[in-house]
Amino acid sequence: MIEVVDNQYPEKVYTVNIEFPEFTCVCPKTGLPDFATIKIEYVPGKKLVELKSLKLYFISYRNVGAFHEHVINKILDDFVAACQPRRASIVGEFGVRGGIRTTVSAAYPSK
Amino acid sequence: MIEVVDNQYPEKVYTVNIEFPEFTCVCPKTGLPDFATIKIEYVPGKKLVELKSLKLYFISYRNVGAFHEHVINKILDDFVAACQPRRASIVGEFGVRGGIRTTVSAAYPSK
Amino acid sequence: MIEVVDNQYPEKVYTVNIEFPEFTCVCPKTGLPDFATIKIEYVPGKKLVELKSLKLYFISYRNVGAFHEHVINKILDDFVAACQPRRASIVGEFGVRGGIRTTVSAAYPSK
Amino acid sequence: MIEVVDNQYPEKVYTVNIEFPEFTCVCPKTGLPDFATIKIEYVPGKKLVELKSLKLYFISYRNVGAFHEHVINKILDDFVAACQPRRASIVGEFGVRGGIRTTVSAAYPSK
Amino acid sequence: MIEVVDNQYPEKVYTVNIEFPEFTCVCPKTGLPDFATIKIEYVPGKKLVELKSLKLYFISYRNVGAFHEHVINKILDDFVAACQPRRASIVGEFGVRGGIRTTVSAAYPSK
Amino acid sequence: MIEVVDNQYPEKVYTVNIEFPEFTCVCPKTGLPDFATIKIEYVPGKKLVELKSLKLYFISYRNVGAFHEHVINKILDDFVAACQPRRASIVGEFGVRGGIRTTVSAAYPSK
Amino acid sequence: MIEVVDNQYPEKVYTVNIEFPEFTCVCPKTGLPDFATIKIEYVPGKKLVELKSLKLYFISYRNVGAFHEHVINKILDDFVAACQPRRASIVGEFGVRGGIRTTVSAAYPSK
Amino acid sequence: MIEVVDNQYPEKVYTVNIEFPEFTCVCPKTGLPDFATIKIEYVPGKKLVELKSLKLYFISYRNVGAFHEHVINKILDDFVAACQPRRASIVGEFGVRGGIRTTVSAAYPSK
Amino acid sequence: MIEVVDNQYPEKVYTVNIEFPEFTCVCPKTGLPDFATIKIEYVPGKKLVELKSLKLYFISYRNVGAFHEHVINKILDDFVAACQPRRASIVGEFGVRGGIRTTVSAAYPSK
Amino acid sequence: MIEVVDNQYPEKVYTVNIEFPEFTCVCPKTGLPDFATIKIEYVPGKKLVELKSLKLYFISYRNVGAFHEHVINKILDDFVAACQPRRASIVGEFGVRGGIRTTVSAAYPSK
């Protein structure tokens, strides 16, 4: 579902940061919506992620039930499978729930 | 008292940040309330901390007398015992008292 | 409970602002703690509010169940009764609950 | 759908501000999600809005297609019908679309 | 060029704010590009401005030479002609040139 | 003690703002130091306040015991006596004491 | 020295704000440099101020000795004489001297 | 096109940061303009980049179609070719498109 | 003069930060007051610093003449002598004097 | 021209930061003034820099023509010659010129 385009500078080790402040999914326990800002940083390999398809991929979570910790790991796995980067990391900053603000961070390869 | 759930990505080394700005306990000398923001960062092992139980754990300090330095070490010990993380750290940012602002930081394993 | 001292400039129309970021009471429905910053602005009459007693008055709500809208009106009534100001207003900025942030504002005399 | 509770200070003219940063609906032209922060300010009459039901009312727009200008007027109408305030106003701050940020503000009674 | 859609609440006096941080035109003296954030506030009449067409209208200035003071008045005239609002105002915040930052504000009807 | 110089534009109604963030005096009850930022705004008459003498005047409070509300009124009286302005106002923003932040504002002529 | 150009919208009552953060002159008592941000707001008449000439006018103060209060009134007089605006106001925010920050504001016509 | 001047301290290892917030090019897919802040940091060799020519180089992209990832690598290549620095890095912070903010970072020599 | 209490977690390597924004002493050359924010970070040994006594220690400098660089080293020496920490560092951020802002930082053991 | 005083703690490795936001010189090409904030950090040897003389040294550049990159290296050389620090670094943050903001950083000993 995440599409890619050719990286014209595949021999260069450079970094792309993507920030999506409009991520939303559903709490699997309460059915209430959760909101997050998703930040991805990756060093491209031979492919770049196509941003429009990435946006649609994020939107596909809109009615999906998912725990904070698991959805971030799932997105990272899908992202890495799609564009096979040299390195990638992801941060999900979720809105306050019950007075608690939660942020989940994961990286590929796993440190 | 702090409950846990299974980590679906136990083989991954990833990080969870939790911020609770509504911590309050009581000064053991004056009996007056103290307020703090508690920040916990941990790398999960086989378990994730369940946030609702963590909130109730924090609330249980509401009428407890405790020095700043000691309460932060106590919370870290309880947190580590509950979820056995690979690593964990805690910061407690206390409100101004007598013109002095105090922050206490501890880590597991102790550096 | 709120004590007063003499205003040495009773003939002057001047303003005193008081900000107390550490107000806490209890939600009457859930029993969970609520937190607020209380801001009072008043034009003194013959008396000034004594701040230490005001702090203890605020702390007396710590284990009291109260709706946001009602506790703010109650504090204003008590404040006016204690120091009989020319004018007074109060704002209570409560922490996020269920994704909603609530602020309640009242004034004496009621506009 | 928006529930109310009795205002214990109905004779007082005071103000309640409510801020909900997690509003989302769907663009009726593209089907893509829109996001907004909704701010309501009202002077209660005999009734106060019950916040939990207000949150569920906001969430009911999650999969509804609606233009920015119209959804804000619709929410104001529903809010006024539910709690019959002395005065009410609403602001909807929508996220950037096509490089343009839009904010819609309405008031009751219409000025 | 600026298109409109029907206002479903034409009898209501409400306000729409539009912010476009990516306006650019060309300095008529030096030929160098100028940049501005354009902010429009209007009270709709029977029509609402369609945002996509407004964006394209803004973009049409990309290679046009225009003084700061004049381009803002021109945009306001075109905007008013297109949607015939009850009221409208415009602010153009231009980037620093020669150490001077310039902002131009105009309103309809002219005060 | 506050010195003045001639105002070369006595027929003009213009405003001078002065901000002094380093005011300190002593609490008359505890003997502990208090700190404040003092802000004065005045419309000069025939005289302007000389800033160096004003600074020394502020410093003269360093070891003086004074309540917040009274010291601000005293400074305003001295300031008005020294330079006979058309109008003057003063704000004293005091540091947090016992979790409470106090600001005192007064004006000449008294509103 | 301040040059003007024709206002193409002389019948419109609109506002131009100019901010120049790099004003410097010399203290007439100590010979040390003073620094200020100058902000001018004016409603043009038949003429607009040409910005490059205004910048050179500001620079002409670089080695001139001038009190804060007087230089701001002088600039306003020169500005009004040059472009004969419907209204104009000026604010000069000077850097900290002896721990005191001074701002001077004047307007034409004098209120 | 990027011109250089002699570095008078070629034996010193020091750093120059350049920030250009007014970069604009065109999206090769939609033809719509893109905007970015470009930040360059370099350690000069025998030459310094002449800033006016660098500005004109940036402006030359105004009507050029280019993907975010590729234009940043292209600018870095041109910059390095022009001034042969000891080290250089570039960051391009692009405006929000489709709710996604993208930043691209590259360095010479490629890490 | 700086008192200590027992550290209940002496085997743990954890950190305490203390911030005191109300430090004041006197310039030994001019006799004018100086102001600073003092920040101390230390890793406790067997003792914790008692905050009330630390505040009184800070206040004891109120009428003492001291250069910025020397007073910070003196406070660090006294602090280390009192509580014998594993590590300690101190930062003193002094107010602007003559347009210059000075910060002094020292550490134990000296790096 | 930069004077020094004895460092009473010469055996300690500690750091002094100095920030001067009012630096100005002249562009050697256009003759127009340039403005910068100068930040110096140094680890003193046997001498401390006397701040008043440093201020006068900075002011001596007021009518000197100098390129950004060169003036920063020159100041560092003079500073090191005057006080012979263990280490020193300097940052000059210059105002926007032609839409470009430039910062120059150098260090002793050169890395």
TrEMBL record, chains A, B, C, D, E, F, G, H, I, J:
According to its UniProt entry, one GO biological process term is:
tRNA queuosine(34) biosynthetic process
Reaction catalysed by this enzyme? 7-aminomethyl-7-carbaguanine + 2 NADP(+) = 7-cyano-7-carbaguanine + 2 NADPH + 3 H(+)
Where would you say this protein principally sits, based on its record? Answer: cytoplasm
Identify one Pfam family in the record: QueF
**Listed InterPro entries:** GTP-CH-I_C/QueF (IPR043133), NADPH_dep_7-cyano-7-deazaG_red (IPR050084), QueF (IPR029500), QueF_type1 (IPR016856)
Q: Which GO terms describe its molecular function?
A: preQ1 synthase activity
Q: What is the enzyme's class at the highest EC level?
A: oxidoreductase
**Pathway(s) this gene product operates in, as recorded in its UniProt entry:** tRNA modification; tRNA-queuosine biosynthesis
Name the PANTHER family on file.
Answer: NADPH-DEPENDENT 7-CYANO-7-DEAZAGUANINE REDUCTASE (PTHR34354:SF1)
- Family, per entry: Belongs to the GTP cyclohydrolase I family. QueF type 1 subfamily.
Name this protein carries in UniProt: NADPH-dependent 7-cyano-7-deazaguanine reductase
Query: What organism is recorded for this protein?
Result: candidate division WOR-1 bacterium RIFCSPHIGHO2_01_FULL_53_15
**Which classification does the entry list for the species?**
Bacteria, Bacillati, Saganbacteria
Gene that this sequence comes from: queF
